[in-house]
Amino acid sequence: MTSSRTILHADVRPCEVWAWAMYDFANSGYTTVVITAVFNAYFVAVVAGNALWATFAWTAALSFSYLLVVLTAPVVGAYADLHGAKKNLLAVSTAGCVLFTVLLYFAQPETLWFAIACLIVSNFFFGSGENLIAAFLPEISRVRAMGRVSGWGWGLGYLGGLVTLGLSLMYVAWAEAQGQTASDFVPVTMLITAGIFSLASLPMFLLLRERAVPQAGKEVRLRAAWAKVWHTVGRIRQFTDLHRFLLCNLFYQAGIMAVITLTAIYADQALQFTTRQILLLVLVVNITAAVGAMVCGHLQDRIGHVPAIALTLAGWIVAIVLAWAAHTPGLFWLAANIAGFCLGASQSAGRALVGVLAPPSHLAEFFGFWGLAVKLASIAGPLTYGVTTWLTGGDHRLALLLVGSYFVVGLILLSGVRVVRGRRAALRSERTRPVRRIEMTR
Predict the structure, then answer these.
(1) pTM to 2 decimals?
(2) What are the residue ranges of helices labelled H in 86-181?
(3) Range of 184's domain?
(4) Which of 97, 95, 125, 119 is nearest to 106 (CA)?
(5) In CATH, what number is assigned to the domain containing residue 80?
(6) Beta-sheet strands, E only, within 190-302
(7) pLDDT tens, residue by residue, 412-436
(8) Domain presence at residue 306
(9) How many C-beta atoms surround the C-beta of residue 318 within 10 A?
(10) Which residues of 140-171 are buried (b: 16+ CB within 10 A; e: fewer)?
């Protein structure tokens, strides 16, 4: 068995890696239950009363929250780097997401705008936390093992989503047997989700050490963080390979986000899946995604970051073509599980590659730019699908093919990424000590 000393930095304890991965376990229930499988349908059918604008209201609220993350992620990352404050900011984002998920308990038709506001704020805090926890990865893992360590976290995350969804569905089944309606039992699943998030995140806060050294005194506040962001924007083209991969990431994540957001709708509209079939599909695909994240993490460290990501993007293209051709549940199940495997693999592998290409003293900042690309994709991908179905009178199959083109563009852009060259650029930038420029803003 591989020694932890060949995988982790010398001062990192194995329990810290477990604690870091447990945060992925903790927060995945939010996306699985709130965004993908339970609350979204409840919002459209009950809170918005199946109005013609209900689906638009849901996607608009999510898009606005993603836009807020886009606007704030780089400066939050820069502030975290300047003050060595990733863990403190992560505590704020976690508490915010948990609190506003609890408040979704009160989502009813008469509290529509309150529900929309809680959805926006909870998803904003979730997205901000995603970037901050990712920035710990290069601090705990050696470069040659970043793929498998990222895979451990992402794989455990999908299992966390599975646990949260499973417990929620057990409660739903019990409540339905008691004669309760969706307005009775769905709000309780918000409490279940928030409870698991808060409890499962505790190991990270108790065991994982903040290793970043503050680069500025306490008197350097947000103005310095903004100056640091603009400085990075001005020189980001120095990091040719990181810049190209972030663009590649933007395209293929647009495809991924469209699939995550709209798979249930596609299964319902194009293949007439029942609600029970859709929920079972989500459960199984979470398992497939967990396997994909862990397998690809080890593969990535063996064959290289770019070849591993290229294989996952090719798998995505195959899955899209199969789903487009599917007219029976069997073929769609095959496509969905291929997509699930590639989902876990591509998400984990992308995070690891950013960790390799980012300058070591600017990890939170550059992971903020990674988060910016992901959230822009979260807006672009689903909107592309939605606009296509609208313009074509509900042609979901054509919309799916158009979403598949994002993976093709991502694969083309990935071919120009050179990891060794990109890593050298990141290390070379450390010797230029750009922090001096920040000190001038004191």
Answers:
(1) 0.75
(2) 86-103, 112-134, 137-140, 146-177
(3) 14-212+227-439
(4) 119
(5) 1.20.1250.20
(6) none
(7) 999 999 988 888 888 887 765 544 3
(8) yes
(9) 17
(10) bbbeebbbbbbbbbbbbbbbbbbbbbebbbeb
